[in-house]
Protein 1
Amino acid sequence: MRAYTYIEPGRFEWREKPKPELRDSHDAIVRITLSSICTSDLHIKHGHVPRAIPGITVGHEMVGIIESVGPEVVSVAPGDRVTVNVETFCGKCFFCRHGYVNNCEAPDGGWVLGCRIDGGQAPYVRVPYADTGLTPIPETVSDEQALFVGDILSTGFWAARISEITPDDTVLIIGAGPTGICTLLCTMLKNPRRIIVCEKSLERAEFVRNHYPEVLVTTPDDCTDFVLANSDHGGADVVLEVAGGDDTFHLAWKCARPNAIVTIVALYDKPQILPLPDMYGKNLVFKTGGVDGCDCAEILRLIETGKIDTTPLITHRFSLENLEEAYRVFESREEGIIKVAIKGE
Ligand SMILES: [Zn+2]
Ligand SMILES: [Zn+2]
């Protein structure tokens, strides 16, 4: 089969590889019916993910149908339509038992799919720990509705979950890219008093205004004043930093009120400065990424009952054959693109 492969920093190419086979009794082989491209794929492409192993098939956002499972897999079976979790985790180690599955200590635990082992920009993928890494999709939920459950929607759900949002809060979300919008959707489920989204792209700001008219929208330049004018205690009660830009970490803690929670969802290309003398007395609580992707079943229930809908994020559709064109468009951010959906073979 043809698999889209990380060759070296700066280069992804198609490579001919054998169809994956079961290697461990907890594995499953999934035929991919729909996949997407994540900004993390671009981070790998540009050499910003040192853990990524050259030669692996990239891609970690996908849904599909199970072809086969190892003898010890109990919760899913061949024929099941499933979401594939970005993180594979054993479910048994110290970190898994506490819900910190991102830090799973098992050999293929954490984010390895499409990073350290072959991922899903191919017709088939082998998923380790299938019992925890695959979640059956309810019959009434389409592949497109479920496409982001395992990765960016898990990230948004986790970010909103750990940020201790209450109904009295003013929540500031910095960044309205795909993960920012998923974070917004999950924040909306907590019904805070106000949500402010800060986004520099006019097109993306417009997307938020059009789809979520109850959300206040500002720009990085106006953000500090806007938050001050639209919050009750001199800043946001909760800040979720999803942009990962050059100045957005600084903006995040600046816009927070004293004793606020600042959750860093973003993955930065460069180290960030934590100017402790300047923030002394603000008594901030920082929470940092990455995602503990262990809530897929709950997220799928929320989609099934109409409480979350990420389908407006799918702005462009391609076939697997045209994956390179999908990358080009996604990377260039042209034509109002937010996310692509790539149909399997
Ligand atoms: Zn991702
Ligand atoms: Zn574990």
Protein 2
Amino acid sequence: MKSKGLLWLTFGALSLVGAACAFNSTGETIPADWEQTSYLERGHYLVNYLGHCAGCHTPLGPNGQSDMSLFLSGVPAKFAGAKAGPPQIAGFAGPRGARVYAKNLTPDSETGIGRWTEDQFVHTFKHGIRPDGIKYAVSPMEWNVYANMKEEDVRAMYRYLRTVKPISNKAPANIPPK
Ligand code: HEC
């Protein structure tokens, strides 16, 4: 009996929440404090929980999981030329011998994106064009999809990426199709 009462209580509470949403004329259901979260928190959320950037940009450890001590440092330089293995070792194979390698996203100034300005990062994300003018084709890094991100979200990711540990690793250069 007692549990039945509880059930109805829960139901009642849920209906109240539902009613509150229904009467909200803007249809807004996002918590009011959402916009208040800082750029860094938002960048952390986008990079780690939504974008899953580490899935491609972090090397694998011996257990086959992302090696977090090498977080976001790209395909290790020592694997350049490897023909077999997961994308974190051999890159992604493309048409006619092409191969693309996830790059170093840490703030290392020589091998990562340490020298990129926020605007350069935004430009790369929005257009798939690196600061040095190299235009990336559509690849597993789905530039055509990322281009749809709101600029402020891209800026949030950049600001978060500035806070990760700089790691020196020159990821292998992409091999264009023959
Ligand atoms: C499916 C794998 C994959 C995922 C997921 C992914 N990337 Fe990439 N990323 C790549 C590859 C491969 C490249 C190399 C560029 C190319 O060939 O298009 C790249 C390149 C980049 C570059 C250009 C770096 C340079 O030095 O040229 C940036 C910046 C970048 N990724 C950021 C991100 C961020 C931020 C996320 C998460 C929101 C992310 N990537 C998610 C695979 C991925």
